[in-house]
Amino acid sequence: MAGNHPAQSLSDATKNLLPDVPLREGDPWYVDLAPARGDKGLVLLERLFRTKGIAFEFVVFVSHRGAGKSTELLRFEHGIREKYESLHYNANQEMNPDEFDVEDFLITLCRSIESHMREVGMMIPINVIKPVEDWFSEHVVTTTLGKEFIASIQSGFEIKAELPFFAKLFTSLSFLVKRKSEHKDEVKAVLRKYPGALLGAVNNLLDSARDILAPNGRQLLVVVDNLDRYSPKVVDSFLIGSRDTLRKLHCNMIFTPPLDLHLQPVSEDLSKYYTPFSLPSPKLRNRNDPYSTVGAPGLEPLLNVLRKRMELDKLIPEKSAQQRLVLASGGSVRELIALARLAALNADGSITTAKDVEQVVIKERSDIRDKLDIGGYWNALGHVGATKRLDANPKCLSLLYHRYVFHYNGENWYDVHPLIAEMPSFAKAVTKAKSELGKIAT
Question: Taking the CB of the first residue and of the last residue of the chain, which one, N or C, has fewer CB atoms within 10 A?
Answer without folding.
Answer: C
